[in-house]
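The protein record now logged underneath.
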Amino acid sequence: MILCVTPNPAIDRTLVVPGFKPGAVFRPTSQLAAPGGKGVNVARAVRVLGGAALCAGFVGGGTGRQLAELAEREGLGAVWTWIGAETRTCIIVADPDAEATVINENGPTVTAEEWSRLEADILRESAQASAVCFSGSLPQGQPPDVFAGLLQTLRGAGRAVWVDTSGAALAAALAVPGLHIKVNGDEAGAALGLAVEDINSAALAAAQLRARGAEIAALTLGGQGAVLAHETGCWHTQPPPVKVMSSVGSGDSFLAGLVQGFAAGLPPDEALRWGAAAGTANAMSVVGGRFSRQDFESVLAGTTVNRL
């Protein structure tokens, strides 16, 4: 089982609006609401790939109750930590012929007592997990060092821990040795103070993340594929071009493929290929992590990997 932690989950309300542009009035051709947040997307994608996943994170208020109900209806296992504040809502405007527009609310403020309950939930459930994934932003109210403390506790217990975040939360994670870090090129560049613009600079950034203490470092590069640095080497993967419906959740699906690949005993280069194929298959769908196994297998067949 993969424990997928979303500290700041949301209800994702997706509107499909062909030809969307600011300053005009549109009616969506379709719309839907789904439990969202990066870790929820990871859990959804892990299940597509044949793995077991359990969601965890803060939920509260009427929106939190709706999120929990939607997750249960979808068949997503979850252990939610309930808080007094309201869970956020995120709006996604998907245009089949353009990049999606995403409006993310900031989310609730959590108390020290609520954070302690989340920690207890994660530590309890992690005992049954092959890996723990932390994905997305931290809620307001607690400093990043409490996040680092939780990561340190999990590492001390021998857990495999993956982190996909940015900014101050990423800086806190990099202070904990032995983690597996997954970021995009912009996030890596901001953390390291360098420009990540191509495969070579991504490989350099991945090496620097390992030098900072990460056991594994994976960088996604959009249309340029992804790079993985591991103690046994560094690789670049390139998926085939596809018709993009929405890129929302593609990084999360990449992480799901990577983690599920390692959990299945694949070598690093093949796990990387799984990640790239899952992330690309996700771009062919509307809801993050809700791609088809058939699309994954088709993309995987055309995904290459090379040692750098």
The radius of gyration is 18 Å. The chain has a mean pLDDT of 95. The first strand starts at residue 2 and ends at 6.
